[in-house]
Structure formats: structure tokens, C-alpha cells
Amino acid sequence: MPDIKLQVECCQGVKPESLFKFFKKKPILFVLAPLSAEVEPKQQVVDYGRPAIFKCNVRGNPVDSIGWLKDTVPLGNSDPVLRIDSVTKADRGMYQCFARNERESAQATGELRLGGRFDPPEFVSAFDTLTTAEGPFVSLRCVAKGDPRPDLEWRVYGQTVSSSGAVQIGTYDAPNGDVVSHLNISQVRTFYHTCFFLMYSYAGGKRESAVCVQCVSGSKYSPQFMTHLNTTLQVRTKHGGLYECRASSKVGSVTHSARLNVHGAPFVRRMTPLKVVAGRTMWVTCPVAGYPISSVGWEKGGRQLPFNDRQTVFPNGTLVISGVQRKEDAATYTCVARNDEGYSARSDLDVTVMGKSTPVLCSSFLHRLPTVVLLKKKTSFTAGTTPSLCILIQCLTVTS
Q1: If you count Cβ atoms within 10 Å of the first and of the last residue's Cβ in the chain, which end, N or C, has fewer?
Q2: pLDDT tens digits along 121-145
Q3: Which residues of 300-315 are buried (b: 16+ CB within 10 A; e: fewer)?
Q4: 286 and 364 together in one domain
Q5: CA distance 43 to 296
Q6: Domain stops at, among 88, 114, 140
Q7: Is there a single domain that holds both residue 151 and residue 245?
Q8: Is pLDDT above 80 for 227?
């Protein structure tokens, strides 16, 4: 049995009997006992995405503080219960619980292991920012791994990219299990170069036959027709932008993004109409290409933004409008990109602001009835509409 000491502590200069009188002769007792700690459970195996809980059971007195460490790194948690809502790969390891007072401390450990064979996606390698002139063939490459096998997806300015025209995507599995994806950009351009003329033979003043002869340098004959063509693969200015590679599986996802800069005049991609709910924040980045670009701005009705405190325009062409309002913010916005040579490009974005969708309990529509309806599953309707039927589950009559 532990040696328990009983002690009465008083403030300096204050007699114990006066404190007893103040507390109606009920002394304050500080029971001192050696500290000990135990983490429960000592080891647990949790599947990816599932919750995990560690409890720090402390015995002894007094306990001034409790702290948690993971692999010797403080977690900033002072509660006796440590909760992890969704376990990831980074959460596996050793957890330590420390209990302290002025005289001593105690500690205990527990281990968290990741269950199954799940391994979230991660990039083995990915493309860097690339600056090039018009003309060369460009290929962006992403290599990812994970268990289960991750799917790779390409985006530019948030829009999904698929194989079409100048852009072709190829994905394959490497022998070591890595997933490799290439986004290749090239555009076929056709050039006509060669010329031909006709030479005729005559007999008795009449033209009898014609011979097709190719033009040569310095020929005195004028060309009659052209038939030869040439093709080349080229990257155009419009192909530039912010490209993103995304690797995802059922146990997680990871993204990587970098810019492709193609030298040339400014170019702004066509933007898809945007719908925003009133009261929320609108966020959109101008899909600009061309390089170098000196400025990217936004206009509304011919006025340059921002012109109120809810609007913010960032140097990279991102427009943010907080607390969107239907009357004020539903409009056509124009992104304008410029370079130092005086060239510019613009593209319009149509913004529609929808009314707030206010959830209203089904029971609020039944105020004419002498009962209040309690629903196990809350059925919601948009404010301003009346449901034709409410399913009554577990009704409770209430006298008014």
C-alpha cells in the first residue's frame, strides 16, 4: 500500500486555525500520492479513415497538468482523452501521455498502427513550372503510387482536361506498381510550299499535250497550281496556364500544380458561367495564358474592381467577393490580361446569384394541426414552399 501523507497547506503568515474558522472549521486537505499513468489501449490497429481514441489514466495526487506527445513531438493536447477523427498515414506511431505536478511526473505510451494494406496516394515525381516558346512539343509528367492503385486526373484552372485535339493524355502502370501519366500538348499546323506549272507541246499550231513540271529557283514560268504540303507539331500560346495533376483513391487524394508558360501575347480562356449562393463567398481565378503577363484585372460594367470592401483582386488574377448579394453581384464580369508591349486579351464570366436555401422543419408547416410532429429523420423544405405531404413518424401529441 502506498505511503500517503496528509498535509494542511496555508498561506504565508496565516494560522491554520483562522482558515478553519473561515471555512467553518472544514480544513482544506491536500492528499499527496505518487503519480502513475497508463495509456489505454496500449496498442490499437485502425483502418485508414476510421477514428481512434487513446485514454490517459492517471493515479496519484495532485495532477497539475496532462500532455500528449507523438513520436516525442508535443501535440498541444491537455485533455486526458486524445481523439483522432480520421486516421491517416501520418497518425501511425507511438503516443506518450505525461502527468505532472510540482514534485514529480509520470508517463505511459501507446501505439497506433494502420490497419489493412491501405496506403494513401503520394507523388513519386511531378512536373515543374515550364517556360517555353511557341513551337516545341511539350509533355507534362506525373508519377504516383498508393494502395489501392490511385487514379490520375489532369486539370487546368480547375477544369478537367481530357484527350482532345492538341491535348492527349496517356496513363500506364509501371513494372514497380507506380502509375505514370503524361499530358502531351501539340497542335498540327499545315503549310503549302511547292508550286507547279504546265508545259504544252504544239503541232501544226495546235496544242496537243501538257506536261506537269515543278518550279525551280529562278524559273521564268509562273506557277499554275500548288499541291505539296508540310505538317509540324507546335505548342501555342493558348495552351499555357496553371495545370494540376490529382491522384486519388478511396483512402485519400493528393494534388500537384505548376504553370506552363508559353511566350506570346495575352490569351484568356473561355469561362463557364458561375452560380453562387447568396451570402457565401465567390472565388474565381482568371484562366490567363501568354508570357510574360504584366497585369491581370477584373471589370464589371466597365468599372475596374475592386470598388467596394467586399471585393478583392489578387495579382495572380483571383477575384474574391465575400457575402455575395443577389442584386449587387449578379452580373457579367470581365477578366483583362495585359503585357508590357500594349497587347491585351479579355473574356467574360456570367455570374448568377441564387437565393439562400433555408432548411425548415416539416413540423413548422403543421401549425394548423393540434399536434406537434417529431421526425426521426428531419425532412427539410426550401423556405417559401409548402409540402403536399409530411410523413409522420413517432408522433407526439402536445396540449397547447
Answers
A1: N
A2: 999 999 999 999 987 789 999 999 9
A3: beeeebbeeebbebee
A4: no
A5: 55
A6: 114
A7: yes
A8: no
